[in-house]
Design brief:
By secondary structure, this protein is an alpha/beta fold. The protein has two domains: 164 residues, 3-Layer(aba) Sandwich (Rossmann fold); 147 residues, Response regulator (Rossmann fold). Helix content is 44%, strand content 18%. The protein has a seven-stranded mixed beta sheet, sandwiched between helices. The chain has a five-stranded parallel beta sheet with strand order 2-1-3-4-5, with helices on both faces. Helix 2 packs across helix 11, helix 3 packs across helix 4 and helix 5 packs parallel to helix 6. It is elongated, with a radius of gyration of 23 Å.
Length: 326
């Protein structure tokens, strides 16, 4: 090889890493902000990425995703949202409920936001209306935090003899006041006594279960809350150890050994977030994308757990289950 040819080849090789970085930086960048943790959202991320793929975007092929995780610590979200807003992101996917959505909305009024929230985004101030969101945000309302009364009713149907049921909620969650109101109102209608307990740390969760045992609580309704989702294993194990029947918001709890869950198909909902994110990358505006709402809620029953708790599922309730885990 001639010396000049060698120098030319060497110069080209040296440029490869720079060319690769330039190509990577040219990709559109999505900011992904979550109240939860990567460990407990693997299946949800799969749904989100599927939605992106449906819109023609594959991570690390033609789109880059910058992830920020609060790990259940809501007070970290404003800083994480500000970090994303300072990056060259074209859209922010704010997932894991109201805390992430509100933090993203506070961090930017110009970057499009696709949120996944559990309560009414109009009341939260995220959008002007469902059909015409206005501003820079749209997304999907999971309605998980609005289902507390329904979950209490299902648990009462399973254990009609139980007169005292615990409700565990997180007072630091934006929807906490509404959740507590709905449960108390439903309990009064059903003639039940509700022991209200709160937890926003691991130690407080442990203390709450000790209190439930001391109070001889018959069953538990766990409030829909991203913080609790990040502590799913801890909660399911404590309920099993203390022989406490419990109902949760997502299928993942029942799949992990929880007794029952009632809520949306979360994976499909995250797929919808991915679809909207892809549409925005293609030029759509949040104002033109109506806020979505689920049309189906799933009742999941874990028969193995029911047997371990010595419970027999009423035939009518079992017949209404969308899935039975054996």
């Amino acid at each position: 090889m001639k010396r000049r040819e060698f120098i030319t080849l060497l110069g080209s090789a040296a440029a490869w890493p720079f060319a690769a970085r330039a190509q990577q930086s040219a990709m559109p960048v999505i900011g992904y902000l979550s109240s939860r943790s990567p460990d407990d959202t693997t299946h949800l991320l799969a749904g989100f990425r599927q939605g992106l793929a449906d819109g023609g975007f594959i991570e690390r092929q033609n789109v880059t995703i910058e992830y920020r995780w609060a790990l259940g610590h809501y007070d970290h979200l404003p800083e994480l949202a500000t970090e994303l807003a300072r990056l060259p992101v074209l859209v922010v996917a704010a997932t894991g409920g109201e805390p992430a959505a509100l933090a993203a909305k506070a961090a930017t009024s110009t970057i499009p936001i696709v949120f996944a929230t559990g309560t009414d985004p109009v009341k939260a101030g995220l959008v002007a209306s469902y059909n015409r969101p206005g501003g820079n945000a749209t997304g999907i309302n999971f309605q998980t935090a609005d289902m507390e009364a329904k979950r209490l009713g299902l648990l009462h149907e399973l254990i009609p003899q139980a007169k005292t049921i615990a409700f565990l909620y997180n007072p630091k969650f934006a929807a906490a006041e509404g959740q507590l109101h709905d449960v108390r109102e439903a309990a009064q209608t059903l003639g039940l006594q509700v022991n209200v307990l709160h937890a926003s740390t691991d130690d407080e969760i442990n203390a709450a279960f000790r209190t439930m045992v001391q109070q001889q609580t018959a069953a538990l309704v766990l409030a829909a809350d991203p913080f609790f989702d990040t502590r799913r294993s801890q909660l399911v194990v404590l309920a099993a150890y203390n022989m406490l029947p419990a109902i949760y918001q997502f299928r993942e709890y029942a799949a992990a050994g929880g007794l029952m869950s009632y809520g949306i198909d979360a994976v499909d909902a995250y797929r919808q977030v991915g679809i909207y994110t892809a549409q925005i990358l293609k030029g759509a505006k949040p104002v033109d994308l109506p806020v979505l709402q689920p049309i189906k809620f799933e009742l999941i029953i874990n028969l193995k757990t029911a047997k371990a708790l010595g419970l027999e599922i009423p035939p009518m309730l079992l017949a209404r289950a969308d899935e039975v885990i054996e």
